[in-house]
Amino acid sequence: MSGEDYAIRLEGVTKLFGDLRAVDDLSLGIRRGEFFSLLGPSGCGKTTCLRMIAGFEEPSEGSIYLEGTDVARLPPYRRNVNTVFQNYALFPHLNVEKNVAFGLKRKKLPKAEIDKRVHDALQMVELEDRGKNKPTQLSGGMQQRVALARALVNLPAVLLLDEPLGALDLKLRRQMQLELKHIHESVGITFIYVTHDQEEALTMSDRIAVMRQGRVEQVGEPEELYEAPATRFVAGFIGVSNFIEGRVESSNGMGTLSYGENQRVIFGRPQDHPVGDIVSLSVRPEKIRLLELHEEPPEENCVLKGIVRDVVYLGMTTQYKIDVPALHSQFTVLEQNVQVASDKTLWVPGEETILTWHPYHNRVLPEQATAESTEEVA
Ligand code: ATP
Question: Distance from the CA of 49 to the center of ligand 1, in angstroms?
Fold first, then answer.
């Protein structure tokens, strides 16, 4: 992809606050019209990144290209971007229409055009009948939609959204996520969205950059990040993962880790993992099936013995915590409650079980990540 196809391109961007590297040599290309999220734990540098794109912070090093032009040293008002913040930042003394019209009036556009654009923007966020209300007369979700209309009305090349749904309750938040996605599809503007909520990022984004300690760990589409996490951190931060670490014992056709009688974890191509290598794998909870001790797992499958420790019935699914003595660890397993009401009841704590899954579901994680603890990403 050429530089021209990117709405925003960051090249070697670093931001220092004293000794702290809030953003560390970050390079990223965000495509035109994309819904792109910066996702990561608190303090990983997401907001700092967004503020540098907006122009509220100047990078210590590196370049930021907006539609091909380096804007890293331009003030915010010279950049064709708008920001929506978590706390709405509406003017309390102005009604909804005047809040939305504010930027256009400062640009001294003709009144007829301002009226039309304000009307269109309020229609887009479904608040056309609330134009005369003051912000305090609106719910939190409505106020956030006004903030969105106020930004969109300026037709920015890029809309920056900094945890804009953070102050809303869960139900409204879910509803607003879908609305935001629809609005994005209808306006075709590039959205850059900052969140620490992985479910929110997965719901809305075309692509996501997972950040950690000022750096990007992986960029990808939601499905790619979930199904093929590149690092242990991503595997643990996006959804839940079970981790397996061991020394390759045989690599006859596939790499194999053995744990005594009838217990094995099979994975990957043998040429990549010779006998003696230490490998680190991850497998998702919903890929694992639980069998009774007398049941025979498929021959090609991974098989481990476990003891059920914890059972959480969640309606559609049940989540189990299962001790796996062979690995000295605990697995999380998620089962659909398809047959629970008919021929099968839930597993109960203390029961012995067999965990089994197809080797295809194992992800081999890069070596450098194996030293990190699971707790670090919880
Ligand atoms: P959160 O999700 O909690 O908002 P974040 O990923 O957006 O976190 P940033 O706000 O970008 O993280 O902060 C990254 C690091 O930079 C943090 O350690 C923070 O304390 C530090 N930091 C941010 N702004 C400043 C500042 N103006 N002065 C000094 N340190 C700062």
Answer: 10
Is the distance from the beta carbon of residue 209 to the nearest atom of ligand 1 less than 6 Å?
no
Q: Report the predicted TM-score, pTM, of the whole model to 2 decimal places.
A: 0.85
Can you give the residue ranges of every domain in the chain? 3-236, 240-289+298-365
Please check whether the domain covering 3-236 is classified as CATH 3.40.50.300.
yes
pLDDT tens-digit profile of 283-336?
Answer: 999 999 999 999 999 999 999 999 999 999 998 899 999 999 999 999 999 999
β partners of residue 129: none
Q: Whose CA is nearest to atom 16 of ligand 1?
A: 22
DSSP string, 259-291: -STT-EEEES-GGGS-TT-EEEEEE-GGG-EEE
Digit-coded pLDDT (tens) for 45-71: 999 999 999 999 999 999 999 999 999
CATH for the stretch 240-289+298-365 = 2.40.50.100
